[in-house]
Amino acid sequence: MASKLSLVFAGLAAAGCLAFSSAVAAGTLDDVRKRGVLACGVNPGLAGFAAQDAKGAWSGFDVDFCRALAAAVLGDAARVSFTPATAANRFELLASGKIDVLARNSSWTLEREAGLGVVFAGVAYHDGQGFMVMRRPAVTSALELGDASVCVQKDTTSQGNLADFFRANSMAYKEVAVATDEEALNGLQDGRCDVYTTDVSGLYAQRMRLPRPAAAIVLPDVISKEPLGPAVRNDDIGWFNIVKWVNFALVNAEELGVSKDTADAAMTSSKPDVRRFVGAEGTLGASLKLDKAWAINAVRAVGHYGEMFERNIGAQSKLGIPRGLNQLWSMGGILYAPPVR
User: Fold this and answer.
1) Crossing angle of the two packed helices 305-312 and 61-74, in degrees rounded to 10
2) Rounded to an integer, what distance in angstroms lies between the CA atom of residue 59 and that of residue 171?
3) How remote is the C-alpha of 323 from its chain's centroid?
4) Measuring CA to CA, which residue among 233, 208, 313, 206 is closest to residue 31?
5) What is the mean pLDDT of residues 299-317?
6) Does residue 1 or residue 132 have the better pLDDT?
7) Is the peptide bond between 137 and the residue preceding it cis, with omega within 30 degrees of 0?
8) What is the pLDDT of residue 47?
9) What's residue 136's pLDDT?
10) Taking the model in full, what pTM does it have?
11) What are 202-251's pLDDT values in tens digits?
């Protein structure tokens, strides 16, 4: 979801109070190694992406990315601490240095990179804003939502996207602005609103919280572009490159057929591109100030991109989200990564 800055945070930025201190400035890799733990900001609780079980253990697509990054940087996927990051405080946590990377469903936008002192290290999930309705009365398209009441999280660009969509299609609607996704879901259940709108991935995740998930349907309409990916501070190009290339490596691993199960076999492959990927040839790891096995360590930890997707949010998971745009470019999707070479 594309959240806007709070007034307080915006005021601090305008006043120049968010200038990075030497403790936050360049040197993130050294800080992580000295600490021995990667600090990763994730959603406080979004099924399939980042959530804790009854014992406090984290799991999800974004959680797996953090573990892959820890494996690449520290050689151990377990050496990562997870900090719950809300829509309101996520960028403040990153700017203050309380987290090293933000791996939360956050949209890559010009406003954020130009105004928040952050950069996005690629797209991990291609998303878009959609609509969810209860199956009664039957609705099959967002173009049938004229005069509907719509629950939407306040202080997010979902509000703007919602207004644009209804205006562009000359339809009236009633906005029901709420503070949290939970409140929006409750509003849909109790009839306070006819429709719930947020990112499509979020709708699938929230639907799982319903007593009867099948009682709701996510409409096929997608009304915005929401490229979700990991973000870091813009003061450390070395760390930015590491996070970016771990993201790319997971995609390249799927293209190369290097999976969690085939990682050992890949180490003895005769294919030049696979040998570079696993670190058997070349000095790509050293150029990132990482071990030569950085990429294969990431894959050993969580598998390649496709394994992460299917396990957490895809057809093999409870969410059952189709890969769609998140399929490899060679398979009809738009998932494309520069080569590891």
Assistant:
1) 140
2) 40
3) 15
4) 233
5) 96
6) 132
7) yes
8) 92
9) 75
10) 0.86
11) 999 999 999 999 999 999 999 999 999 999 999 999 999 999 999 999 99
- pLDDT bracket for residue 154 (50, 70, 90): confident
276 CA to centre of own chain: 27
In the predicted model, is pLDDT for residue 73 greater than 50? Answer: yes
- Could you tell me which residues are beta bridge partners of residue 118? 233
Burial class (CB in 10 A: 0-12, 13-18, 19+), 97: middle
Written as six digits, the tokens of 178 are: 């709420």
Looking at the DSSP assignment, which residues form a beta bridge with residue 58?
A: 52
Return the HEC string of the chain: CCECCCHHHHHHHHCCCCCCCCCCCCCHHHHHHHHCCEEEEECCCECCCEEECCCCCEECHHHHHHHHHHHHHHCCCCCEEEEECCCCCHHHHHHCCCCCEECCCCECCHHHHHHCCEEECCCCEEECEEEEEECCCCCCCHHHCCCEEEEEECCEHHHHHHHHHHHHCCCCEEEEEECCHHHHHHHHHHCCCCEEEEEHHHHHHHHCCCCCHHHEEECCCCCCCEEECCEEECCCHHHHHHHHHHHHHHHHHHHHCCCCCCHHHHCCCCCHHHHHHHCCCCCHHHHCCCCCCHHHHHHHHHCCHHHHHHHHCCCCCCCCCCCHHHCEHHHCCCECCCCCC
Token pair recorded at residue 119: 């950069």
Distance in Å from the first CA to the final CA of the chain: 34
Per-residue pLDDT averaged across 125-150, rounded?
93
Burial of 183 (0-12, 13-18, 19+ CB in 10 A): middle
